[in-house]
Amino acid sequence: MAYIAVDNLKQGMVLDADVHDVNTRLLLSKGQKIAPNHIRILKIWGISGVSIVGSANEKDEDVPPIDDKNLERIKKAINLVFKNADLKNPLIREVYKNSLIHRLKGAFGNSPTLNCHACTENPIPSKPEKLKNRIDQSDIKLPDAPTIIKELNQVIDDPLATSNDVAQVVTKSPSLTAILLKIVNSAYYGFPSKIDRISRAVTIIGTKEISGLALGICVMQAFKDIPKDILNMDAFLRHSLSCGMVSRILAAQNNLAQTEQLFVAGLLHDIGKLVVCKYYPEHAKVCLESGFVSNASIFEAEKKIFGLAHPQIAKLLLTKWNLPSELTSDIVCHHAPSKAHDPQKAGIVHLADMISHGLGIGSSGERSIPHFDYHILDNMTNSIDRIKTVFSQIIHQFSPMDAIFSDISK
Questions:
Q1: Torsions phi, psi of 83, nearest 5?
Q2: Does 67 score more than 70 pLDDT?
Q3: How far apart are CA 264 and CA 256, in angstroms?
Q4: With bands split at pLDDT 50, 70 and 90, how would you rate the model's confidence at 116?
Q5: I need a labelling partner for 316 at 20 to 30 A (CA). Which of 138, 215, 369, 381 fits?
Q6: β-pair type (49-52, 2-5)
């Protein structure tokens, strides 16, 4: 018996175990020979890998030949990302190894970075304690939740809502409709025929899943006007998108339902940083520059300057918009999943953030991952053998979604 990624399945391989979706519905039976349509079915339902009879004959990912100078440069960057980590931990060591391999392969080339310069002379515009009091008292001019978000929340909360109810809300925004149709018709989902109606997409993917995708897109669009001299939204969105996609992959691996909820949690995990950039741009510059100059954590810089870090700042926005409590918990606790309503889900976002930083896709502003919740990671050690599969999938799936989501920041 061998576990093999769906991307590496070949026609004629024989299943060594039944394959079920997240709702325990039988998709394929033990002993069945793999046919081309089977691979498509597995991808549609988010199955990341299966057990097959015999050996998978998959070669280990060897580090490709590379000159010493480039190797040293990439190792230096990787070591900075994981400088706060205990590389003796099996899961972190596996993430580190695969991050190094795929950076050496140039999986994502030279990703753009956030705009931050060594301008250490910039003073903090206001005293930290005053700013902290303003935020604590919610004296922050957060934008009113778009009407479409309010309506989607109502649909999500209504157990009798139908696919047409969701579609009617979504289609009020032509731009949102266009983006969602691009997503469901992308290689990410792999549907064999073109889906040209939101109602059909909702029927196939699910009411809450489409609502979640729409919610994530609406929230990110609310911050697209942040000035480029404060934040490179292309770089930020790429990191956020990667975290969302890896979260979805990990959710499917762990047989969790509502994988799109984890996608949205990953997509919005650093939304607190956007709040700071939009409403306190001078403070944001100081935070980014502090991390850039000293290699210190921006997370720690935020706490010194604001009195609290971006997850707590995010909570103000998410509470203001009355987003689902579980989604809010996954986002707010992504640096400390043990404190979340559901530690496993927040732990998935925690791990996805680590993997995205390791691969160097875009940038969240952090040069080093600030925290590692080892208790949660230790509980996810059954995923160690599948980490390689996660890297393989995000590398194959990212480009189509990146092209679609790049429209959001324009």
A1: -65, -25
A2: no
A3: 14
A4: very low
A5: 369
A6: antiparallel
In a domain, 40, yes or no: yes
3-state secondary structure 139-187: CCCCCCCCHHHHHHHHHHHCCCCCHHHHHHHHCCCHHHHHHHHHHHCCC
Interhelix angle 163-170/207-221, rounded to 10 degrees, is: 20
Measured distance CA(12)–CA(292) in Å, rounded: 52
* Number of domains present in the structure of the chain: 2
Is the confidence at residue 396, as pLDDT, over 60? yes
Q: Give the angle 8-241-42 at the CA atoms, nearest 5°.
A: 30
Bridge-partner residues for 2, per DSSP? 52
Token pair listed for 93 = 């060591």
Q: Are 148 and 166 in contact (CB under 8 A)?
A: no
- How far from 371 is each of 156, 270, 300, CA to CA, in Å? 33, 14, 10
User: 257 in helix, strand or coil?
Assistant: coil
Residue 33 sits in which domain range?
2-52
Q: Are residues 376 and 246 in the same domain?
A: yes
**Helix (H/G/I), strand (E/B), else coil: 45:** coil
Query: Residue 266: CB partners within 8 Å, gap ≥ 6?
Result: 240, 243, 244, 245, 246, 247, 248, 349, 352, 353
Q: How far is CA 293 from CA 118, 135, 229, 286, 299, in A?
A: 6, 27, 17, 10, 14
135 and 232 inside one domain? yes
Which residue is associated with the tokens 């080339």? 109
Residues 41, 134 within the same domain: no
The pLDDT tens digits for 322-351 are 788 889 999 999 999 999 999 999 999 999
163-170 and 198-205 helices, crossing angle to 10°? 130
